[in-house]
Write a structure and sequence with these properties.
The structure is a single chain. This protein is an all-alpha fold and 115 residues long. The protein has one domain. Helix 1 crosses helix 2 and helix 2 runs antiparallel to helix 4. The longest helix has 32 residues.
Length: 115
């Protein structure tokens, strides 16, 4: 099942994630889907990368899927050509989100320390 990111006003989870961050829509959708127990591309993407968002204070619901990276690939490749490229693009988007979020958190911490 492909995830369909919704707008930022569709979920209280979205208020925790700045819409300025690349990939925020995928992460918000993934958090929402994980909380609902849905196995979507976005949910598996967030589950497999859960360590970095958790380190930023984002509450990532646990996934019942033992290997979310494998499940993500299964979901992507189900009847579609170009699965490897799509998988890599989603991973890159998640890495971009994590880096930008970590940078924003570091910047905010630096600003708070100088006040």
């Amino acid at each position: 099942m492909m995830c369909v990111p919704k707008t930022a006003t569709d979920s209280p989870v979205s208020s925790l994630i700045s819409s300025d961050l690349p990939g925020h829509e995928l992460v918000s959708a993934g958090l929402r889907d994980l909380a609902a127990g849905r196995e979507t591309e976005c949910a598996m993407l967030v589950a497999m990368a859960s360590t970095r968002p958790r380190a930023l204070g984002i509450d990532v619901p646990a996934s019942a899927v033992p290997r979310p990276s494998h499940r993500l690939y299964e979901l992507i490749s189900d009847g579609q050509a170009g699965a490897h490229s799509r998988y890599n693009a989603l991973i890159a988007r998640m890495v971009s989100f994590a880096r930008a979020a970590e940078h924003a958190a570091s910047k905010a911490a630096g600003n708070a320390a100088s006040d």
